Amino acid sequence: APEVFEGKKYTGPEIDIWSLGVVLYVLVCGALPFDGSTLHTLRDRVLSGRFRIPYFMSSDCESLIRKMLVLDPSKRYSVEHIKRHRWMMEEAPRLLPSTSSSTDEPN
């Protein structure tokens, strides 16, 4: 979280929300929202608050992540806000059943 890079102590849920935003981004995108080859570069990128949104991310998911990765911890979404966000309320896509399995029939 930006406040950690600024030398502030752990203050609770706000930092956890930032971390959850990073985890959600990684789960959706398969990459980190902020990275760098050095700690200094990583720090600069986190403190800028800018990250790329891939073309395949839904606008609702983008909205939620942007509200979790807000630089100002007092403006970051709370757990209650996250639970009520439109993206969290969507029905999860159904997984299609596998058409074959290695245990169904011998080859």
What labels describe this entry?
0% strand; globular; 107 residues; Transferase(Phosphotransferase), domain 1; mainly alpha
Care to describe what's here?
- It is built from 6 helices and no strands.
- The protein is mostly helical and 107 residues long.
- The chain has a single domain, classed as Transferase(Phosphotransferase), domain 1 (Orthogonal Bundle).
- α2 (13-29) runs antiparallel to α4 (59-68).
- The radius of gyration is 18 Å and the shape is globular.
- The model has no long low-confidence stretch (mean pLDDT 87).
- Residues 1-88 form the Protein kinase domain.
- How many angstroms does the end-to-end distance come to? 52 Å
Unreliable residue runs: none
Could you describe the largest sheet, including whether it forms a barrel? none
Structural class by SSE content? mainly alpha
Look at the structure and give the CATH class: Mainly Alpha
Sequence of secondary-structure elements:
HHHHHH
What is the CATH H-level superfamily? Transferase(Phosphotransferase) domain 1
Helix content: 40-55%
What is the radius of gyration? 18 Å
On the 0-100 scale, what is the average pLDDT? Answer: 87
Classify the fold: give the CATH topology.
Answer: Transferase(Phosphotransferase), domain 1
CATH architecture: Orthogonal Bundle
Report the principal-axis shape. globular
Total helix count?
A: 6
Strand content: under 5%
Number of domains: 1
Number of DSSP strand runs:
0
Summarize the structure.
The chain crosses the membrane at residues 17-34. It is built from 6 helices and no strands. The chain is 48% helix and 0% strand.
